[in-house]
Amino acid sequence: MKTNQKLTYFIIAILIFTGIGLGVSKLKKETKPVGKLYTESKTIPVVLERGSAPEGSLPRKEISARSEDNIISAVKKVSPAVVSISGVARRRDPQRYIEPFPFRFRERELLEKFFGKDFFEEFFPRREYRYFKREYGVPTLGSGVIINKEGYILTNAHVVRGVDKLEVKLSDGRQFKGKVVGSDPETDIAIIKIKTHNLPVAVLGDSDSIEIGQWAIAIGNPLGFQHTVTVGVISATGRKLSEMGYEDLIQTDAAINLGNSGGPLINIYGEVIGINVAIERHLFTLIQGIGFAIPINIAKGVIDELIEYGKVIQPWIGVMIQELTPELAEEFKVKEGVLIGDVMSDTPTEKAGIKRGDVVTAVDGKKVKTPSELRRQILEKKVGQRVIITLIRDGVKKNIPVVTTEKPSEIPEIEVKAPEKIEEEGRWLGLDVSSITPQLKRRYNLTDTRGVVVTDVELGSKAYRMGVREGDIIKEVNRRKVQSRADFTRITKGIRKGAKMTLLIKRRGYTMYLSHYEKRFP
Q1: CB-CB neighbours of 173 under 10 Å
Q2: Which end of the chain has fewer CB within 10 Å, C or N?
Q3: How far apart are CA 143 and CA 167, in angstroms?
Q4: Taking each helix axis from N to C terminus, what angle separates 371-379 and 296-309, rounded to the nearest 10 degrees?
Q5: Which pTM does this prediction carry?
Q6: pLDDT tens column, 268-286
Q7: Active site residues
């Protein structure tokens, strides 16, 4: 009986394994082999008619099956025109030293151990530190881009500033001595020349047509690694680096490092749209730097003058401009534009009839919303050129022709920042004022006799955060003239708590508006 059971179990097991084997065999016949553990992508050519786009996609001017092909093509087009610029800058820095003692330092230490420090300090005191200037050379490194077959190279002014023995290395390895033809510190653009011809030339594009998000390619010599290419996008436009003196910069996330300065920032079509100029990075952190470039249109506006005159003869119209804050926009009843804070005497704007308090909205039909935009529009003009200034005066739009003139060598720059959020306080504005007396005129170097002078501003007060400083002359309060302390007191007493306040002040000979308005919400 047990034998029959074992035989039965054995037969059942054979049948089960046989069935499993047949099933696996059939599965192998119906399934293809897997091969590698990863799938290799294959490029499938896509041919589309010019101007067409797949359904549901964004409209495009040109569609490429591989974007990298365009990047490679752009780099090949511009890279031969990119050069490396090196030299030695002369520096003079204060150095500190101790005048020699009767004994050398090592001998003094040994004798102090035997006689004691007090003994030496009494008979051989240490001398005071003294300063002297020692001149030494600092190696410099930068980049540039060839813009003319006859050897003219575009770069940054700070790359060649104070540099001796300027050397230029081309993409083919040839080296030449470079000569600075012209330099403009304000735009940070310079032109250098090398003695050769038939050079590859880069095409200069149009920086006004760039858009945020488009490709950006930087080529240069960062840290001495020649012809390095980095790729990113245009992150922003119109950036300002006040501490460095730059305005209206292009921001990109394409990696830019020391040595990239002066090199080109190009678009995907191989056109130069900017000149790499600066990086912003935080020390002691892992935050990577943000790159900035000067728009190529700014450079194009000064190239001819640098080559011809060696410097830039800047056009100028003679106004002090300031940002139109929301408070000032409400005060002057305009939506956008640039406020004229003052009009200088015997200047093109004064002759044309432009007045303080006018709000400029366009130059030659092109809108301006910020002081940097207005300044740039004027700088792109030529000296002696006629421009049409569109402005709003007391709610009326006017078009006034102005002929530019050459900018004087010394014009004070007065910048007024937008006021911070201001809380209510007991003291009106937190300032003290006085009539203009002979003593105060001497103290603050004033020439005016009408108005009130600010003799004290409470730190952190409403007036301080608006931008009022000691020595300022208040000429108007809420567009009402102030000629004496009595006028100031009478006008300010009529201003209720929390109401708008607009001051016209005069500082260093020029006027500007400061305003604050605290809105009330239900």
Answers
A1: 7
A2: C
A3: 11
A4: 40
A5: 0.58
A6: 999 999 999 988 765 544 4
A7: 158, 188, 261
